[in-house]
Design a protein that fits this description.
- The chain has about 150 residues and is of the alpha/beta class.
- Helix content is about 35%, strand content about 15%.
- β3, α7 and β4 (about 140-145) form a beta-alpha-beta unit.
- The longest helix is centred in the first third of the chain and has 11 residues, at about 30-40.
- It is globular, with a radius of gyration of 15 Å.
- The structure holds thiamine diphosphate (TPP) and magnesium ion.
- Magnesium ion binds near residues 54, 82 and 84.
């Protein structure tokens, strides 16, 4: 990730338990849906979903569920416009030849807003903490679109 990237801050986040992730198979595409399940199981707790943009694109219709339920889940999208994991490997091992790893990500704050969910885009590390505090204290769902370019691109 690029120097000064918000990802540096994300890597320092400390979450209280319970923390759920996708286990040994590391499946993507279910972070938000699982968070909605967790909010059902843990009413009154602040649920936060941290997801890649590629993963989020597989389930963004669940924004409708957020709107319908009113669950105040904060969704933090790590936005690198890529299946970053695979793109990094292609850059390292395949002489820069990329195949199927670059993503066209829509305007996420506008997309969230079209579902009636608050969204904002963050480009600087210092913006993340206040945005999270705003989202938590609003008592409403929020999508924080965190721009995290991959180094070298
Ligand atoms: C259901 C499923 N399909 C494919 C994969 C393989 N896979 C692992 S990481 C990844 C890319 C994830 O991209 P993104 O969510 O944007 O996260 P990033 O690596 O960019 O942080 C893929 C396709 C998987 N783990 N699960
Ligand atoms: Mg990505």
């Amino acid at each position: 990730m690029g120097a000064g990237c918000t990802n540096e801050i994300l890597s320092k986040l400390v979450a209280t338990r319970p923390i759920f992730q996708s286990g040994d198979f590391r499946a993507i595409g279910h972070g938000l849906a699982s968070s909605i399940g967790m909010q059902h199981a843990l009413p009154g707790r602040q649920v936060v979903c941290i997801t890649g943009d590629g993963s989020f694109m597989m389930e963004l219709q669940e924004l409708a569920t957020l709107a319908r339920t009113g669950f105040p889940i904060t969704v933090i999208v790590v936005h690198n416009s890529a299946y970053g994991n695979m793109k990094r490997d292609q850059m390292r091992h395949y002489d820069g030849r990329l195949l199927g790893t670059q993503l066209l990500i829509p305007d996420l704050p506008r997309l969230a807003s079209s579902f009636g969910v608050h969204g904002e885009q963050l480009t600087k590390p210092a913006e993340l903490e206040p945005a999270m505090r705003r989202a938590f204290s609003s008592g409403k769902a929020a999508v924080l679109d965190v721009i995290c370019p991959i180094e070298g691109l």
